[in-house]
Design a protein that fits this description.
Blueprint lengths: L1 H5 L2 E3 L1 H23 L2 H7 L20 H18 L3 H18 L6 H15 L8 H5 L7 E3 H21 L3 H4 L2 H8 L14 H23 L4 H19 L4 H8 L6 H8 L17 H17 L11 H4 L14 E11 L5 E4 L7 H7 L3 H17 L4 E12 L37
Antiparallel strand pairs: 1-2, 3-4, 3-5
Length: 441
């Protein structure tokens, strides 16, 4: 039964059109990063970057070479869109994009992680088998069908993203409108819509629609009777997010996903009118079936498990940030804070006060006080810098305060903990993160 469902051949119009859109979007993401100055601000101007822990070997190229790096990615995007040397082009982009994602955390969006996952999934799919330069170069590649599992690979990934995004909003500060109102307050200066965004009914609408849309959009797209309404809601939701939150290609990538929910004939008539339809519907079980089922089961098990890991780590993830990344926890809180480090020479007792803001970019200053992993990394960096001068030091957080969703700031880091001597635990709670107090004494 499972084989008949997964390995039924269906029209591949949705996958072909999505490849074109996907290639265009990764071109715009890469080229836009250069033109808007994102590359310069994030990877060239900073003295150093905060890598994902364990990937310290990934460093930005010196000088202006990161512009060339992103230029190569932009070219790969064009090649993917055109379907030229598709898997080679997408492989290069995937490696380069993964490198960018892992080499810095100052600019973090969930769609950066999603894009990395999609690149891997798209590498598995025969998206170059029609309307591509690969087919023109090698006509034997041409195919107007794909297996059903090809489309469901994308659908399941999207379903996981949306569902966890909804569930993450099921907490008091979202439901009582604290978060929606604060998100909109930061946009009160917007032309024309700034005042409208401050209306209480708007905050209610954002809170309710945010939960229900993420939870229901995939099931409603799958059901033919509600598909067009879900699509209209998707257009409104994602355009609103694009205009109000300025989150890059993610809204348009999300609209591209809807291709896989419509009937292939509809997609073909709109986007590929000259393409011959496929109506065979044969079931042909390929030789790679065991590998597909095994690897697919492991992949989706990991995707389902990662967003749950913060439940097994003591403390509130909104406070500790442990388990926040890779979990589809999007637009859930506002945080601000301050921090100062104290460096003590173990041999002489001499003390140095370090204000990290003096050495960080604006983006880095926005995370140094509120992200424990970044705080630990900065302490480790200070340890190495003083070691290079022949000094063995202890590093303490002399002052720290973090405000979550507008509450009174509380101390985040234990001032008695020598962070230079602490290890970072990936799957455990860091003992030097102080607990969040719901009510101040």
């Amino acid at each position: 039964m499972l084989d008949r469902w997964l390995f039924k051949r269906i029209d591949n119009s949705a996958l072909i059109v999505f490849r074109v859109i996907f290639g265009l979007l990764i071109f715009l993401e890469s080229g836009g990063a250069i033109l808007t100055g994102w590359v310069k601000r994030t990877l060239i101007e900073p003295e150093f970057t905060f890598n994902f822990i364990g990937f310290e070997f990934l460093q930005p190229l010196p000088g202006n070479w990161m512009h060339v790096y992103f230029g190569v990615m932009a070219c790969c995007g064009i090649l993917v869109m055109l379907g030229y040397r598709y898997r080679w082009s997408l492989s290069v982009f995937t490696l380069l994009w993964s490198g960018v994602y892992l080499m810095q955390k100052a600019s973090y969006n969930n769609h950066y992680y999603l894009l990395m996952l999609l690149c891997v999934l798209m590498l598995l799919l025969p998206a170059h088998r029609y309307a591509s330069l690969d087919v023109k170069r090698e006509p034997s590649l041409k195919r107007n069908w794909m297996y059903r599992w090809n489309s469901w690979l994308i659908i399941l990934q999207v379903w996981i993203v949306y569902t966890y995004a909804s569930v993450a909003k099921w907490y008091p500060d979202w439901i009582d409108l604290t978060v929606p109102s604060r998100l909109m307050q930061a946009r009160s200066h917007y032309y024309l819509v700034g005042d409208l965004l401050q209306e209480p009914w708007m905050h209610v609408s954002i809170a309710v629609f945010g939960i229900l849309f993420d939870l229901l959009v995939v099931p409603l797209l799958l059901w033919k009777r509600t598909r067009i309404f879900a699509f209209i809601a998707s257009v409104f939701f994602h355009i609103f997010n694009s205009v109000i939150f300025h989150i890059g290609i993610f809204p348009y990538l999300s609209l591209g996903f809807t291709l896989f929910f419509f009937e292939p004939e509809t997609i073909r008539k709109i986007f590929l009118p000259k393409k011959e339809p496929y109506t065979g519907g044969e079931v042909v079980v390929p030789s790679y079936r065991p590998w597909l089922l095994g690897i697919g089961a492991v992949y989706f098990a990991v995707q389902l498990a990662l967003p749950l890991r913060h439940w097994f780590i003591p403390g509130d993830v909104l406070w500790t940030e442990e388990g926040h990344r890779l979990s589809w926890r999007m637009m859930l809180r506002t945080k601000s804070g301050y921090i100062r480090f104290k460096v003590v020479d173990k041999a002489t007792g001499e003390t140095y006060m370090v204000h990290p803001g003096n050495r960080l970019s604006d983006k880095q200053q926005g995370i140094i006080a509120t992200k424990p992993d970044v705080i630990w990394q900065f302490a480790q960096r200070l340890k190495k810098e003083y070691a290079a001068r022949g000094k063995e030091v202890a590093v303490y957080v002399d002052r720290s305060g973090v405000s979550v969703n507008g509450r009174k700031a509380q101390r985040l880091i234990d001032p008695e903990a020598d962070l230079a001597d602490e290890r970072w635990y990936i799957w455990k709670h860091q003992p030097w993160i102080l607990p969040f107090k719901k009510e101040q004494d």
